[in-house]
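User: structure tokens for this one?
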Amino acid sequence: MEQSIYALILAGGSGERFWPLSRRARPKQLLRLVSDKTLLEDTVARLDGLVPRDHILILTNVDQEAAVRELLPDFLKENIVAEPAKRDTAAAVALGVGWVAARDHRATMVVLPADHVIKDIAAFHRTLLIAAAAAVETGALVTIGIKPAWACPGFGYIEQGPPLKLKNDASGSSAVHHVIRFREKPNAELAESFVRQGNFRWNAGMFVWAVPGVLSEFNRHTSELAHFISQLSVPKNFEQALRERFSKLPKISFDYAIMEKADRVLVVEAAFDWDDVGGWQAVANYFGTDSDSNAANGDVTAVDSTHNIVFVEDGTKVALLGVHNLIVVRTGDALLICDRHKAEKIKGLVGKLPEELQ
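Assistant:
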């Protein structure tokens, strides 16, 4: 690709659904859930051949900064930045845009969460290159849409409009579509209707744009964040602006602040596999499974027990007798036993635990 391309990896999430393995200082993206590498390591490696390492900014927070730096010791020190306070995704993206604009104000930029599982790297690259071409040609903000595998009420949705033919698309079948609107997380019935209509895609929080295009939208819709970006873009002013201004920025999501209001928004359907591994039930799909649908990352003996999920951090032998539909997770200092049908309530449980276990 001829244009300069940069990437912002958002790696500051809490990942409370994976307690007790996840903690404030070791959230989901820093866990080895589906392979011998963490999700963050896989996200960085997935960009090899598409984005140079020195063009990648990893944005984390002060609780997790030390763990991220330890995990990626060869990564450029200045390319790992910790947010001094939690201000939601609009401020995080603004920080990334300012970081990129200071280096190349005409660059193309990719924004990626750090906690997704994607195996088909070639298809991932192809999708991002299509999105980048669309962003450069049209000046639009481009989002990556995931074709729904089921009527999930836990995701936001993108209502996909008519296709857009790019000038340089020789295939004759453009994967680029106009966005009609974004839809918040629906109830189960509405999610079913979205899937039946066929033109809705999951919003996975992956974006591509040319820096001038996103700057225009920030200037149009949120002057405070636009001013912050302009301060970051001044040579040698980045650290001071981050330290003095970031904590005072509005706490608002990027979707609400920019994407839902932007004049030109396009969607490219992902040509790659995708999983956000949102909780223990999703991770169980990557574990070994016995004939009674017990999924485990290690050695389990199960008698008269079905549909259980077991994760042990230290190789402890687990025996199950007469239990069904449980999640059992053992770490060095904590044990979780949970009805798998109530796994979504683990996040609420964490706040009731002693501070040192959160």
